[in-house]
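About this split. The held-out portion is used to measure sequence recovery: a designer receives only the structure tokens and must propose an amino acid at every position. Recovery is the fraction of positions where the proposal matches the reference. Here is one held-out target exactly as it appears in the evaluation file.
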């Protein structure tokens, strides 16, 4: 590496070398040996180091994170460069974004799960979006941002990007500006839970289509914070849905989840409560309360490559030299890619209330066959250029090109297998092969839902996790076993 740096036209000043172990020599290739990585922070400070090149063999990958943290604490810019022999053998570094680029090649996520994406009827979707003002909540999220990109291709009059996370909002606004420079955009930093402000914003921008993608989605976190899940998933939905009906938007679409089926976790239960509220609101519009608004819900499973989902987590683990973790080797999930999920959401929203039929549909996307997570992890590791080793810890017994896979056990609130509809419900085919309509007989009469909302409003202010769970279980019977097993907070 020292000779390679010296061969550069503008060679950096080489202050010295820091070794993994205690040094037994004073110089390497005329560069002074400063010490070992145990003293890295102090060595950087005493030698005024501005940047560092880290080159470690695969057998030492487990040290990379510790070294990286030390350099960051010392204020040193790092560059990780694999040894030449590993570069020649094409051992890739892994970096996954929502579009999932891994090393030099890009992983085809559809092929990773063996899925053929459904196409959409762009003419029908265009009739609902072209030259319309479209508002997307959660616009900076994985699904929300892809929805915005897809919507932009239909030449809407304006896109209103509603998002409470500042950086995420800035990024999707920047992307749309660069890719669609003539498109009118409005970036609105706002939390939809604020009902009065939400109504005021909708009255100001007058959207004709509203797609509600904002939600809390992480199952274990919501188990620990059920009041937050109720506030965001239920009352955030109520706020934006009420405002949409109040101003008479043409279409309102709620992004839901397969976890809303027979939910045993807080995340799924609150998404189901949100569905029930929108269904009840749809009944009211059918009875004459602003008949102009068509409301629908779209349920689907996991999307590959979304923020904090399994693929980015596994990619980070591989890049940092850590084992890939899987909760249970029996666990299965439904998967589709982010672009396909977004396009089918737009397709389903355009199908709501066709041919003078009442709206309020729960659409279910065709997710194909459930995917075994354990098998997916092994395929992902192979796609990254490594070999999966089952159950072994990191260490000298592993090949430099091997990545251990370890089982960590299911997390709170997780099911082994997800469902996309209730057993008692029927899935009806629609005109689109990738979308089904749910025949739902749930009691969503306005009086029942009014009592539910009042109960949830009181519960979410409670400091007791148990109290919140008990109130959820009143309306979601499958949560009963979960609520009864919880001790008072």
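Reference sequence for scoring:
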């Amino acid at each position: 590496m020292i000779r390679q740096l010296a061969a550069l036209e503008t060679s950096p000043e080489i202050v010295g070398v820091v070794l993994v172990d205690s040094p037994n020599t004073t110089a390497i290739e005329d560069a002074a040996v400063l010490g070992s990585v145990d003293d890295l922070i102090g060595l950087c400070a005493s030698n005024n180091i501005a940047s560092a090149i880290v080159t470690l063999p695969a057998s030492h990958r487990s040290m990379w994170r510790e070294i990286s943290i030390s350099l960051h604490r010392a204020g040193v810019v790092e560059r990780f460069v694999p040894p030449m022999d590993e570069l020649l053998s094409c051992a890739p570094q892994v970096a996954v974004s929502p579009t999932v680029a891994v090393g030099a090649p890009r992983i085809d996520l559809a092929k990773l799960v063996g899925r053929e994406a459904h196409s959409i009827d762009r003419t029908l979707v265009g009739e609902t979006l072209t030259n319309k003002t479209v508002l997307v909540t959660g616009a900076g999220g994985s699904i929300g941002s892809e929805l915005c990109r897809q919507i932009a291709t239909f030449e809407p009059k304006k896109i209103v990007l509603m998002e409470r996370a500042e950086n995420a909002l800035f990024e999707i606004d920047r992307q749309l500006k660069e890719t669609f420079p003539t498109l009118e955009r409005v970036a609105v930093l706002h939390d939809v839970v604020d009902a009065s402000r939400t109504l005021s914003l909708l009255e100001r921008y007058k959207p004709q289509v509203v797609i509600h993608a904002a939600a809390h989605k992480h199952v274990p976190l919501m188990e620990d914070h059920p009041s937050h899940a109720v506030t965001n998933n239920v009352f955030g939905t109520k706020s934006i849905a009420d405002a949409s009906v109040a101003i008479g938007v043409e279409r309102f679409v709620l992004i839901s989840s397969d976890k809303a089926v027979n939910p045993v976790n807080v995340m799924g239960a609150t998404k189901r409560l949100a569905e029930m509220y929108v269904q009840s609101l749809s009944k009211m519009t059918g009875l004459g309360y602003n008949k102009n608004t068509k409301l629908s819900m779209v349920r689907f499973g996991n999307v590959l490559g979304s923020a904090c989902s399994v693929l980015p987590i596994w990619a980070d683990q591989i890049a940092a030299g850590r084992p890939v973790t899987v909760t249970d080797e029996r666990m299965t999930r439904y998967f589709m890619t982010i672009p396909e999920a977004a396009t089918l959401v737009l397709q389903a929203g355009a199908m709501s209330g066709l041919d003078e039929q009442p709206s309020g549909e729960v659409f279910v996307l065709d997710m194909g066959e459930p995917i075994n997570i354990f098998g997916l992890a092994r395929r992902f590791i192979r796609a990254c250029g490594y070999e999966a080793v089952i159950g072994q810890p990191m260490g000298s017994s592993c090949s430099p090109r091997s990545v251990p896979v370890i089982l960590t056990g299911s997390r709170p609130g997780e099911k082994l297998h997800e469902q996309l509809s209730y057993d008692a419900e029927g899935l009806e085919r629609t005109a689109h092969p990738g979308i089904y309509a749910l025949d739902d007989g749930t009691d969503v009469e306005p009086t029942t839902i009014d009592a539910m909302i009042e109960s949830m409003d009181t519960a979410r202010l409670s400091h007791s996790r148990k109290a919140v769970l008990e109130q959820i279980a009143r309306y979601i019977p499958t949560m009963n076993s979960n609520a009864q097993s919880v001790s008072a907070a």
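Annotator remark: Residues 226-247 form the longest helix (22 residues).
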